[in-house]
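Good morning,

Attaching, inline, the backbone tokens for the sequence recovery test we're adding to the shared suite. The designed sequence is right after.
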């Protein structure tokens, strides 16, 4: 393996690592957003805390057809 091939492979790995870090960062941002939105939702619709997921889905479909 030549020096240029090694450098190219290292650059490729650095790019893959950077992309993986970005995916983790985006996933964490999405998780945070969903938690915050869920908290706001529960604040204004407290009955949702005690509903199963399918019950909640059906209730929301009735409110927002």
């Amino acid at each position: 393996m030549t020096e240029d091939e090694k450098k190219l492979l290292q650059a490729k790995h650095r790019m893959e690592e950077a992309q993986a870090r970005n995916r983790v960062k985006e996933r964490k941002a999405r998780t945070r957003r969903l938690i915050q939105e869920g908290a706001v939702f529960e604040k204004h619709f407290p009955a949702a805390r005690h509903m199963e997921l399918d019950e909640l889905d059906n209730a929301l479909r009735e409110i927002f057809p």
